[in-house]
Write a structure and sequence with these properties.
The protein is an alpha+beta fold. It is about 25% helix and about 15% strand.
Length: about 160
């Protein structure tokens, strides 16, 4: 998972691959892939390691805005990510995070109109680059699962 992200499914987005960032004592910063050897680290360097995130499940624009508001309030999601990834516009009123419902509805409508059909799988940038370069070969007669679209509104359960 240092290059190939965890897949997003049914409209969810791929997670991030893991990696390492070294903040050098001289003020420079070096981003490194997770699988690397031979990098010299001095005692004054600060090393940050981030682990791979899980892929998302479901269309982010369908996530309950109240859950996104909560994620912003507790610091799991930035206000920018709430807007760009989930289409939720939040404001801070006397330190409290609140949803701008009108702006959220308008933004979500605009984002949906601009993106087209939602894919069933999001395999991340690395996979897409390998695929575009001809590095993904399927057996003869097999279809491409990446052509499958997400089930946006699954049928109601019967019974």
């Amino acid at each position: 998972r240092s290059e190939l992200a965890t897949y997003g499914v049914n409209g969810g987005k791929a997670g991030w691959p893991y990696g390492i960032e070294v903040a050098r004592a001289d003020g420079s910063t070096e981003s490194l892939p997770g699988m690397i050897d031979g990098v010299r680290i001095s005692p004054d360097d600060l090393v940050t390691v981030w682990t791979t995130g899980g892929g998302g499940w479901g269309d982010p624009l369908r996530r309950d805005p109240e859950r996104v508001r909560y994620d912003v309030a507790v610091g799991l999601v930035t206000e920018e990510a709430a807007r760009e990834e989930y289409g939720v516009v939040v404001t801070r009123v006397q330190g409290k995070v609140e949803i701008d419902e009108v702006a959220t509805s308008e933004l979500r409508d605009a984002l949906r109109a601009g993106r087209g059909a939602v894919p069933m799988f999001d395999r991340g940038a690395y996979f897409e680059a390998v695929k575009a370069g001809g590095g993904v070969v399927r057996p003869e007669g097999w279809g491409d699962p990446d052509d499958v679209r997400a089930v946006v509104d699954p049928p109601a359960a019967s019974g």
